[in-house]
Write a structure and sequence with these properties.
Elements: H1 10-16, H2 24-42, H3 52-62, H4 71-78, H5 83-96, H6 114-130, H7 139-164, H8 184-195, H9 198-204, H10 211-230, H11 238-254, H12 268-276, H13 291-298, H14 306-326, H15 329-351, H16 353-356, H17 359-372, H18 379-392, H19 402-415, H20 428-440, H21 447-460, H22 465-477, H23 488-502, H24 508-524, H25 528-547, H26 551-568, H27 574-589, H28 595-598, H29 613-616, H30 622-637, H31 643-659, H32 664-678, H33 683-698, H34 704-716, H35 727-734, H36 771-791, H37 798-801, H38 807-812, H39 817-834, H40 840-857, H41 862-872, H42 877-893, H43 904-913, E1 936-939, E2 944-947, H44 952-956, H45 958-972, H46 982-998, H47 1004-1017, H48 1025-1043, H49 1049-1064, H50 1072-1083, H51 1093-1105, H52 1110-1125, H53 1129-1145, H54 1150-1162, H55 1169-1185, H56 1188-1193, H57 1195-1208, H58 1212-1228, H59 1231-1238, H60 1247-1260, H61 1263-1285, H62 1289-1310, H63 1312-1358, H64 1360-1385
Antiparallel strand pairs: 1-2
Helix pairs in contact: 2-3, 4-5, 5-7, 6-7, 6-8, 6-10, 7-10, 7-11, 8-10, 10-12, 12-14, 13-15, 14-15, 14-17, 15-17, 15-18, 18-19, 19-21, 20-24, 21-22, 22-23, 22-24, 23-25, 24-25, 24-26, 25-26, 25-27, 30-32, 31-32, 32-34, 33-34, 33-36, 35-36, 36-39, 39-41, 40-42, 41-42, 43-45, 43-46, 45-47, ...
Length: 1386
């Protein structure tokens, strides 16, 4: 026991304490002392832990004593309030039967302080929690004491309110120290403060506490009072309840003010606890009949808080649960009594936006309605419940699940017969409910909900005759199998019945539910026949609307059907969107009198089905879809379709192609088309489209790059002028803060691939927003949001963010100049800083984006861009990036497609003439003395002083000139400047003098670019060129003379420039001495491959101008030789061109012309094939272009040379070219020349040549001309064929083959019959000639034998010895021959 009074050892002592070890004789005394010590520990305030965890072990130790011994603890707790005996008096008399009266409050003594009451209530919480049922015999004492305390603190609060003139507010606020006002921790803190003043309280009497302390104590008392009803200890509280309700419940009902309803009060949890237990339900109405109505009316207050409303709904749920499950008569009576009040106030609650719009709140309200529905009997209640249930069916499935909606519909089916308004078809309530239920056919998706909805329509058929006609179709369309799947056959049968018969004569009201059901099928089903049949049903409605027999049907189509079609275009199924587009096309074709439909007429393409846009937008072939998208964009450009129609129909269509793209090409085409559509949208629709895709671009998905490109396409077509906004208006808008981006904690939106993001259009007063509204949104939302998004430093999203910069200039350029500069400067700063990225891909992407941006902005912002780049890229590798980017920008802006927008001419002229401000030499500082200070550097190796050049500008100023010349030449190259434009020509006039001045420079780079610039400027039809030509020629010759040779780049460029001047300026004159110098210089370069261009260009110009000096002939002899001997085909081509010009245009004497012709004929036999082919190509030009008499003069020369080529050339290509030339030559000959040529004698010595010649001639001339020479050809062929028969085939095989091919060619030309006849004549003539020849040969042979015999006889007579010797040798030779033959035979 001694350890129990120690601050540090009492826990150990408690663990060692055991009441069972105490002897019976000493137990009473020991338990009494121990209980008092332990009670003291419970009230200990001198340090230590006073939390519930510290009290638990003490109470656990106390729980080990018997129930009778616990009286000591209870008596100690009730000591300040009169003790245990006083508290038990009423319960004992009640149990003994001495009294049956209800409990009457006796009140607390004036000596009881607030601290004592709070202390008791705080301790009672732990005692009830730990000891619980062990206190059952003392339960009445504890309850009575708590009742008395609660009544006392309630009275004290009321008194405090009267004294302080305060309102009884029961709000859970926060005190200055951060604790929660009214919490048990706060009350305990106040109890400790109160106890320190106990002595003062005793001397001066009870203290008057503030209203705040009184309310905290009351809250604690109500909580403890409530805990008795939540405990498991059985006890009858009925005798006490009248006193309790009268003292501190009913008074609270009068204090329900606006302040109370913001949060939960202290007594509402007590009422909720009573409603949870069936025995306590009488307490809700027996003692105060206004209790429940007061609570239920709170639901209808505008200022009721969410927590209060939920607690009241808990009370209703608990009561209805007892009525439904247990059939509790009290619960049934309560519901029957108060159902009207509940429904009326619940209807008001559901209309409120603050509380009733959350998912949890709606589900609570539905649960209450479902509980109340079975107990509604009269018409008024049914009407109220119906008004509550119908709006709930329109909530989404997350707020009101489909299963709950099915239950609601079943209740509605029961209610429609009870509501009088639903029994009259003409009643507005019926018509509104009918329309609402019809809409549900297009949204509900489960089997239970649709079957319940069809049952509701079945109930309506009892009062609606028109509905009886269509109800069987509704039932068939919504038929389900036992497995819960739609029955396709039944649906098809129902739709077929509608399409074939019943569609005729249906009223607009009969069409209404069918239309919603049909749209549901088109949107949701995957069965193609079913969707197609449903689409046919809508076409039946289109036919009815087109016939215009029923005006209500036309109105129905223009409102409901048209809106349904628009929603169908946003379906996630491409097949469903295709069906909707087909219906729109059909309605357009039928010319339904709806304004939006009539605007679609241009899409029909005059009835060409293959071009019809709506038919081909969802064609099975991707090519047809892309073609339809392009056609849609072209039609939009014509302005034939209004902004509203574009926004309603075509923006959703294009959204489907972009968000659910089948392939990249289709998405790109859709993006391009959406850009064209955006150009014709009014501001609300334009901003809505931009907002949609800007939001999608920020999402993490695989398609966000496509969304970013769409944002750029939309911004590229920004067409709203804002330049007229005044400075005052702009200043007024500037006060408005920028719209911040969405909070990070916002719930993540669904992926766009699964669901289309539903973006609402901004709330703008008029459809066509004025310029100030547009200005405000652009400057406060669009551009700031884009730039903030681009500023985020994320390497992962850089490739997405950077391309968005392309759209910013398109919008910013429409702003006033002051605002425009700020936005563009911020954009350029962001892009410049992006080049600091370590990723090469990011830098390349940023560079390409920057090219597009500066192209849009123009040269006006080029200095700003360069400045931003210089500020961002300052050192190290960034300097290399800076140089590369600036070079790329300059190269890009001078491209042909951008040169007109970028004012390159002004920049170039300023650089060439050095008139720009930044090119002016900086003024030198005045020196105080005449002494010249020089920066010197000492070479440590040679000990010499090297002076540094301090005038850097003078040394490097030529670089600006070269830069300007380079810009000019780049712009001029490939016709980048339109020299037919008078404005461009007027701006080029100053360049003549500026470029001419550069020819006097000493810098070789300036001279090279200046010469090129001269060549460019003289080609322009400028007035200043003609007077400047002599100076140009003189200075160019001066540059060439200074060079001394043509090896340098300057000399080569000067030669090319001189050639250009001679070509472009007919008035340009060159002295003979200068011409001689030029020809002598270029001769050495004619053979040099690397330097041939300039000499050939100059020589061509000289020959074209027909400038005549003797050196020209010498040079052309060299060129003719190169034409044959040079191995480069390119050089040979140049030489042939020049030689042809020379031969045809320059004076040629008879001897020189003969020499030229013989040169060509002689080189047909050149050793190398390339030379021979070059000569033949030149000869072809001569034969085709020379006059007839000149060709005839050299025909025999070329004929023989070409025949020799056919006969002897080893190259098949050369032989082919020779044959073609022979044909050309033969055509240029007259008939006499051809005949004489055929009789040339030396043909017989070369039979292959004649065959090739005949073949070339036959292939080139017609049949009538061939007949003239046919006898000669056949005679020659017969001789060759006869001769080859006697020869060895291996030796004459080629000749025989050529002969047979020619024979076949002749038969094809003149015909087989004629050829055979002529060949027979030739053969007969050849036979006669052969006989004559043999006779002559026989005669000649006999004469020769006779002469030989005569000669032998004469020789024998003259020299017998020699004759004998010769005979002996002949016989010896004969014998040796015989021996050899004999030996060979053996």
């Amino acid at each position: 026991m001694m350890n129990l009074v120690e601050n540090r050892g009492w826990r150990v002592a408690l663990g060692q304490w055991n009441f069972d070890e105490v002897e019976e004789l000493q137990r009473e005394e020991v338990v009494d002392v121990a209980m008092r010590l332990l009670y003291g520990l419970l009230l200990n305030r001198k340090g230590g832990d006073k939390s519930a965890n510290s009290k638990t072990p003490i109470l656990t130790t106390i729980a080990k004593v018997s129930d009778e011994e616990l009286a000591i603890l209870v008596d100690l707790m009730l000591g300040p309030f009169g003790g245990l005996e006083r508290a038990m008096e009423y319960q004992e008399t009640l149990e003994s039967g001495a009294s049956k009266d209800e409990y009457v409050l006796r009140g607390l003594s004036d000596e009881v302080t607030k601290g004592q009451m709070s202390g008791f209530l705080l301790l009672l919480q732990d005692v009830m929690r730990v000891l619980g049922p062990k206190l059952s015999r003392y339960w009445s004492a504890l309850f009575v004491t708590t009742l008395e305390i609660t009544a006392a603190v309630q009275a004290e609060v009321e008194n405090a309110m009267d004294v302080d003139h305060e309102v009884d507010v029961d709000v859970d606020a926060r005190d200055e120290e951060g604790g929660e006002e009214g919490s048990e921790e706060q009350v305990e803190k106040e109890v400790l403060e109160e106890s320190t003043n106990d002595t003062k309280t005793i001397e001066s009497g009870p203290s008057r506490h503030s209203a705040k302390l009184a309310r905290n104590a009351r809250k604690l008392a109500f909580k403890r009072f409530e805990s008795f009803f939540d405990s498991a200890v059985p006890f009858d509280y009925t005798p006490y309840m009248r006193a309790a309700i009268k003292s501190f419940i009913s008074p609270r009902l009068k204090g329900f003010t606006k302040e109370n309803m913001a949060v939960a009060g202290t007594f509402l949890p007590l009422i909720v606890t009573w409603s949870k237990h069936s025995p306590y339900l009488p307490y809700l109405e027996e003692y105060d009949s206004s209790l429940l109505p007061s609570l239920f009316k709170c639901l209808g207050l505008d200022y009721v808080g969410t927590l209060v409303a939920n607690q009241i709904l808990d009370i209703i749920e608990n009561i209805t649960r007892f009525a439904k499950q247990d059939s509790d008569p009290i619960a049934l009576r309560i519901i029957d009594t108060h159902v009207d009040c509940v429904l009326g106030n619940l209807y008001s609650l559901m209309e409120r936006k603050k509380i009733a719009k959350s998912d949890a709140a709606v589900q609570r309200q539905i649960e209450v309605l479902l509980f109340l529905a079975p107990y509604i009997k009269d018409e008024t209640q049914a009407g109220q419940l119906l008004a509550l249930l119908l709006p709930l069916l329109q909530r989404n499935a997350r707020t009101v699940p489909e299963k709950v909606k099915a239950s609601l519909l079943k209740i509605i089916a029961q209610l429609v017969q009870l509501v009088p308004a639903m029994r009259n078809v003409a009643n507005e309530t019926y018509r509104t409910s009918y329309s609402f239920l019809s809409r549900l056919l297009g949204s509900l998706g489960t089997r239970d909900t649709r079957e319940a909805l069809v049952e509701v329509f079945a109930q309506l058929t009892t009062v609606d005759e028109e509905l009886r006609t269509i109800h069987p179709m509704l039932k068939g369309i919504n038929a389900f199998s036992k497995a819960g799947k739609p029955v396709a056959d039944a649906q098809l049968d129902a739709l077929a019945l509608l399409n074939e018969n019943l569609h005729r004569g249906l009223s607009a009201r009969q069409w209404l539910p069918l239309i919603h059901n049909i749209f549901y099928i088109i949107r949701e089903t995957e069965d193609f026949p079913l969707r197609n049949t449903a689409s046919l049903s809508l076409r039946r409605l289109v036919d009815a609307a087109a016939e215009r027999e029923d005006p209500e049907v036309v109105v129905l189509f223009g409102t409901l059907v048209y809106r349904g079609l628009l929603r169908g275009l946003e379906s996630g199924s491409q097949d469903a969107r295709g069906e909707v587009a087909g219906i729109l096309q059909y309605a357009t074709e039928k010319s339904v009198q709806v304004q939006e439909i009539l605007e679609l007429q241009p899409l029909l393409m005059e009835g060409r089905k293959e071009d019809d846009v709506l038919l081909n937008l969802y064609h099975v072939q991707a090519g047809q879809r892309s073609r339809a998208l392009r056609s849609l964009g072209d039609i939009c450009d014509t302005g034939a379709i209004s902004s509203k129609t574009l926004a309603d129909i075509f923006v959703p269509i294009l959204n489907g192609f972009i968000i659910r793209a089948a392939n990249q090409a289709q998405a790109d085409q859709a993006i391009a088309t959406l850009g064209k559509v955006a150009h014709h949208l009014e501001w609300p629709a334009y901003f809505a489209a931009w907002r949609r895709y800007m939001t999608l671009a920020k999402l993490k998905s695989n398609s966000n790059k496509a969304y970013a490109r769409t944002v750029v396409a939309i911004m590229d077509n920004f067409h709203f002028p804002m330049g007229a906004v005044s400075e005052a208006e702009a200043a007024e808008v500037a006060i408005i803060p920028e719209v911040a981006e969405e909070a990070e904690g916002e719930e993540e939106r669904p992926e766009p691939e699964n669901e289309v993001v539903d973006m609402e259009e901004p709330a703008i007063a008029s459809v066509e927003a004025d310029r100030l509204q547009i200005y405000r949104i652009v400057t406060k939302q669009i551009l700031p949001e884009l730039l903030r998004f681009m500023e985020s430093r994320d390497e992962i999203t850089d490739k997405l963010r950077i391309p968005l910069a392309v759209g910013v200039p398109r919008v910013a350029l429409h702003l006033p100049i002051s605002e425009r500069s700020a936005q563009i400067s911020r954009l350029l700063t962001i892009l410049a800083q992006t080049f600091r990225s370590k990723s090469t891909d990011v830098r390349y992407l940023c560079r390409d984006t920057l090219f597009k941006v500066i192209t849009t902005l123009g040269s006006e912002y080029l200095p700003t861009l360069v400045t931003e780049l210089k500020l961002a890229l300052t050192r190290g590798p960034h300097l290399h990036i800076l140089a590369s980017v600036v070079h790329g920008i300059l190269k890009h802006i001078t491209a042909p497609e951008h040169a007109e927008r970028m004012d390159v001419l002004v920049i170039s002229h300023s650089l060439i003439t050095q008139n720009a401000k930044f090119l002016q030499e900086a003024p030198r500082l005045k020196k105080k003395d005449r002494k010249v200070h020089r920066d010197v550097a000492v070479d440590l190796k040679v000990r010499r002083v090297v002076e540094r050049v301090s005038d850097h500008y003078a040394t490097n100023s030529f670089r600006f000139v070269t830069f300007g010349l380079d810009l000019f030449l780049t712009s001029f190259k490939n016709n980048r400047l339109d020299i037919q434009d008078p404005q461009i020509l007027s701006r080029l006039e100053p360049f003549v003098a500026a470029i001419g001045n550069t020819l006097y420079s000493n810098e070789s780079r300036v001279l090279v670019l200046g010469l090129r610039g001269t060549a460019a400027i003289v080609r322009c039809p400028l007035k200043a060129v003609t007077p400047a030509i002599p100076a140009f020629v003189k200075q160019i010759m001066s540059i060439i003379q200074r060079s001394g040779n043509t090896e340098s780049e300057v000399a080569q460029t000067a030669l090319k420039t001189m050639a250009t001047v001679l070509d472009s300026c007919p008035d340009a004159e060159v002295k003979e001495s200068d011409l001689t110098l030029l020809l002598s210089l270029i001769q050495s370069d004619l053979e040099e491959t690397g330097r041939q261009d300039a000499p050939f260009s100059l020589l061509r110009s000289i020959l074209t101008r027909k400038l005549l000096v003797p050196e020209v002939y010498d040079t052309m002899d060299r060129v003719a030789e190169m034409m044959v001997t040079n191995q480069s085909s390119k050089t040979q081509g140049f030489c042939r061109d020049l030689y042809y010009i020379f031969v045809t245009d320059y004076p040629q004497g008879k001897a020189r012309m003969k020499a030229n012709m013989e040169f060509l004929a002689r080189n047909l036999g050149y050793a190398h094939e390339s030379g021979r082919k070059s000569v033949m190509e030149m000869l072809n030009r001569v034969l085709e272009s020379f006059k007839q008499d000149l060709v005839a003069q050299y025909a025999n020369l070329y004929f023989l040379a070409l025949v020799m080529v056919l006969a002897n050339d080893e190259s098949s290509k050369c032989r082919e070219m020779g044959a073609n030339l022979l044909s050309t030559l033969f055509e240029r000959m007259d008939s006499e020349q051809r005949t004489s040529t055929m009789t040339i004698s030396n043909w017989t010595e070369r039979p292959a040549s004649i065959v090739r010649w005949f073949a070339a001639m036959v292939s080139q001339i017609d049949a009538s001309s061939i007949e003239k020479y046919l006898p000669h050809m056949i005679a020659a062929l017969h001789r060759i064929i006869s001769a080859t028969k006697l020869r060895d085939d291996s030796q004459y095989g080629e000749l025989k083959t050529l002969t047979l091919e020619l024979q076949q060619l002749l038969q094809e030309k003149v015909g087989g019959t004629k050829y055979s006849y002529l060949y027979s004549e030739a053969q007969e003539a050849a036979g006669l000639a052969k006989v004559e020849r043999k006779e002559k040969e026989t005669e000649k042979a006999s004469e020769q034998r006779y002469q030989s015999s005569f000669d032998v006889k004469i020789s024998a007579i003259r020299d017998p010895a020699a004759f004998a010797k010769r005979r002996h040798q002949r016989e010896l030779v004969k014998r040796q021959g015989k021996k050899r033959k004999a030996a060979a035979a053996l």
